[in-house]
Specification:
Helix 3 packs antiparallel against helix 4 and helix 4 runs antiparallel to helix 5. This protein folds into two domains: about 90 residues, P-loop containing nucleotide triphosphate hydrolases (Rossmann fold); about 100 residues, no CATH class. About 35% of the residues are buried. It is built from eight helices and six strands. The radius of gyration is 17 Å and the shape is globular. The two termini are about 25 Å apart. It has a six-stranded parallel sheet with strand order 2-3-1-4-5-6, sandwiched between helices. The longest helix has 25 residues.
Length: about 220
């Protein structure tokens, strides 16, 4: 088993677009490093199928559910005695998904204002993660992986929607300064099946938990 850089308790969050591989990487890190995984509450959201069928009507309900569930997870992982890894952070709900819905006219100004005020009011009290891992992938890769996992309610997600989320993710990562960031090129790395890619990520995570600026993981790893 690969151990963290030291014996301290770590809080690592994994962010990225729909279908990019967050849950897979969460499981890999949890198993390899002996950390407690906290998975995204996708299948438990009672609004999600309705949301994909009628985003304007159900966007506020769905986003508030995700925010409340991830706040519960955030509290649990902060209180957990050991290191934890989180599949999608609370920040993405507001910075990416709610913001995108508002920009597309699928969340009203009134609903977005209420949601954002709630998020900002709570965010000030949230301890940030020690490391944010950003899985970055093209729309083509995202579509292929969404199709592969076969969730009915994700079948009609458009390429335009995924592209706009990618833009917001890039903008968010560019201004994020609350902790170290590890950018993983998920188009090129099959960390689920490729042992070398998996090892590269594990080593990069361990190194990134040391104080440092934003890192971009280059793959395949090249030696001098």
């Amino acid at each position: 088993m690969i151990q963290p850089a030291n014996s301290n308790k770590f809080f690592v969050a994994i962010g990225g677009n729909i279908g990019v591989g967050k849950s897979t990487l969460t499981g890999i890190l949890a198993e390899a490093l002996g950390w407690k995984p906290f998975y995204e509450a996708v299948d438990e959201n009672p609004y999600l199928a309705d949301f994909y069928a009628d985003m304007q009507r159900w966007s506020f309900h769905s986003q508030v559910f995700f925010l409340s569930r991830r706040l519960q997870h955030h509290r649990r992982l902060v209180d957990h005695p050991g290191s934890v890894v989180q599949d999608r952070s609370v920040y993405e709900d507001a910075e990416i998904f709610a913001h995108n819905l508002y920009k597309r006219g699928q969340m009203s100004e009134r609903d977005y204002g209420a949601y954002h005020d709630l998020y900002e009011g709570i965010r000030a009290f949230l301890p940030p993660p020690d490391l944010l891992i950003y899985l970055k992938a093209s729309v083509e890769t995202l579509q292929a992986r969404i199709h592969q996992r076969g969730r009915d309610f994700e079948r009609d997600i458009s390429a335009d929607y995924l592209h706009q989320l990618n833009v917001l993710y890039d903008e968010w990562i560019a201004r994020w300064d609350s902790c170290a960031v590890l950018v993983v090129p998920a188009d090129d790395m099959d960390f689920q099946h490729d042992a070398a890619a998996r090892q590269a990520i594990l080593e990069a995570v361990r190194e990134s938990l040391k104080p440092a600026p934003v890192r971009t993981l280059r793959y395949p790893v090249r030696t001098p």
